[in-house]
Amino acid sequence: MQRQYRQSLSQATSLGRNRAIGTAPMRRPGAVGAEAGTPAASLWRHAAASASVRTADPTATAHASVGSAVRTGPKAPDFRTASQTTHHVLARAEENARLNDYEQGVKTAFDSIVPTLKRISALQHEPDFESQAQAIARRELGFELPEDILADAWIDQLDMRHLYAGCTFATYHRFCDDFFTTDPLAVEDGEKNFNGGFEGFLQTCGFHTLDISPCADGRLAHLIRYVLRLPHRAVRRKSYAGALFDIENSVQKWVEVEMLRFRAGVPNTADAPTRYLKVVAYHYSSVDPEHGGCAAHGSDTAKAASAGLERLLGFQQAIENSFCCGASIDLLLIGLDTDTDAIRVHVPDGEGAMALDRYVDALELYAATARQDASRARHDIQDAVRQTSPGVAEGMARLIERLIENNFSQIAYVRDYHGDHYADIGHAERFIGAGVGFEEIQLRNLMYFAYLDTVEEAASDLDVGIRIFTELNCRRGLPVPVVVRFDYHGQVPGARERAVTRCRRVTEALQSRYRDLFGRGLLHVLQVVRDCNADAPIEILECTVNAERKAGGH
Ligand SMILES: [Zn+2]
Ligand SMILES: [Zn+2]
C-alpha cells in the first residue's frame, strides 16, 4: 500500500554534507563592536562555576537576570505599521508577550557582555577601578568578574578575550540553571491538564510519540516551543545538519519506545492502535532564497525538502523491513521560513504519501483568515488541510490543524515584535554547542549546534560553525566560545564517567583541529555534563579560561 509513492522520491538528489556557508548577513541585533583585547598574563578563576554567579546584586536591573525576572517585565515596543495585519483572531497575544519577555531577557543577557566590557575597559586606569568595574558587572551582567584579572589590569591591558569568554560561559551557566529550576517555557497549567494535555491530544490523533528532526541551524532551535507551540518535554527533538537524521539512531529510539509500551504501558499499552510519528523540518528563506536557506543543501529549498522526505521514507522502510506483523510508522514533512517563522505542512494523503508540491502554507492561510471570527478561521484551516489531501487520515488532519493554528501565534509574534521578518535573517548565534543534549536551547539564533560523539564525525559541521564565528567574533578580536556538552542517563552505572571522558576527548580534538585559533586565545571551551534522567542542572567540568591560568597564560 505504501510502496507506490516512494517512486516519486527516486529523483531526489543524493546529497553530500558539503555545507557551504551562504552569504546571508551575519549580525546580532544590539551587539556592538569591541576593541581587540591584548593578550596578557592575567588569570581567571573558573568563571562559570564561580559562586558570584549566584550572588548577583539583588538590585541588578531586570535585563541582568536571565529569564525569570524579566518575564513579568513590560512588553517590548510594538513596531507595527498600519499596513500590516499583525493580529489574528487565533493568535495568543498573552502567550506571545510571555515568550517574548523570555527571549529578550536571555538574548539581552548575552548581548550586554560586549558593551559592558567596553565600559569597564575604559575605566581601567582609574584609581578605584576594581570596585567600579565590579559594580558595573553586577548591575549589567548579574555577576562579578574575577578579581585577579581586574587586579592585574594596572600592569598591562585588561584581558578582554578571557573576560569575554568567561562572561559568555557564566551567562550560559546562569541561563541553564534558570531553565532547569524555574521551567520558564512551561505551558499554561490549564493547557497542561486539559484532557491529558498534549500527550492525550496526540493519542487521540493516533500517535503515541512525536519525534521531530529539524535542521541543526540555530534559526530552527525554537521550532518546538515557539514555531509549533508544543510543550518541549512532550516532544523528542534531535537536530541534524540539513535535517538529515540518523536512521539507525531513530530505529533504536523506536525500539525503545515500543519496548516501553509493551513492558510498562508507557505512554500507552502496546495494543492501543497508535503509531510513532516522525517529523522532519527543513527550512528556507523568503527574504533571501538564494543564500538564506539551508546551508547543508546549498540554500536550495526543493533539495532540502526532497532530502528530508527521502530520509523519512528510509526510516519507514527500515522499520517495515526489520519488524514483522505490520509494524510501521507515520511520517510528516514540514518546511519553515526562517525569516517569518511561517510553516508549510506537506499533508499526507490517505496512504500516508506526501508530495513536495502539495502543502498548506500557514502564512497564506493566516492572511486569508485574520479578520474572521474564531470558528470561521478554524473551519477554513480544516478545509485547507482536507483540500490539500482529500483522503488525509482524520487524526493526522487534526494534528496538522493544531500545528497550523499554533503557528499563527508565532507568525503574529514575529510581526508584532520584529516586523515583516526578523532583522537577523542570517546567522547571529552567541556560542557554539557541541555534543549531545542542550534541551534548554529553545531560542532562535542563540547557539550554533553540532551534534556529535567525536569531533571527526562532525568535522564539517564544526568547520562551518568555526567559519561563522570567525566572521561574527574573531574579526572583532573576540574568541569563539564553545560549550562541549554530554548528557547521560544517571541510572546507568559509569555513564557519568563516560560522559566526562567524552567531553575531555572532544575538547582535545577541538584544540588540535583549530590549534591556530586556540594558540591565539581565540577559541575557548567550557566542558559540561548533565544527568538528563534526574532532571538535574548542568555540571561544570573544565574550562579553558581556567586551564590557561594553570599553564601560566598564553
Ligand atoms: Zn539547514
Ligand atoms: Zn537522555
Report on the structure:
- By secondary structure, the chain is α/β, with parallel strands linked by helices.
- The chain has three domains: 250 residues, Beta-carbonic Anhydrase, Chain A (3-Layer(aba) Sandwich); 136 residues, Carboxysome Shell Carbonic Anhydrase, N-terminal helical domain (Four Helix Bundle (Hemerythrin (Met), subunit A)); 121 residues, Carboxysome Shell Carbonic Anhydrase, C-terminal domain (60s Ribosomal Protein L30, Chain: A), CATH 3.30.1330.
- 40% of the residues lie in helices and 12% in strands.
- The strands form two sheets. The chain has a six-stranded mixed beta sheet with strand order 2-1-3-4-5-6, with helices on both faces.
- Helix 1 crosses helix 13 and helix 12 packs across helix 13.
- The protein starts with 92 loop residues before the first helix and ends with a helix.
- The site of one zinc ion has 7 residues, from loops.
- Belongs to the beta-class carbonic anhydrase family. CsoSCA subfamily.
- Its cofactor is Zn(2+).
- It is an enzyme of class 4 (lyase).
- It catalyses: hydrogencarbonate + H(+) = CO2 + H2O.
Topology:
Elements: H1 93-111, H2 113-122, H3 129-141, H4 147-151, H5 160-182, H6 189-193, H7 197-204, E1 207-214, H8 223-227, E2 236-237, H9 247-264, E3 275-284, H10 301-322, E4 330-337, E5 343-346, E6 360-361, H11 362-369, H12 374-388, H13 394-418, E7 431-436, E8 447-451, H14 459-472, E9 480-488, H15 495-513, H16 515-519, E10 523-531, E11 539-543, H17 544-551
Parallel strand pairs: 1-2, 1-3, 3-4, 7-8, 7-9, 9-10
Antiparallel strand pairs: 4-5, 5-6, 10-11
Helix pairs in contact: 1-13, 2-3, 2-5, 9-10, 12-13
One zinc ion binds next to loops.
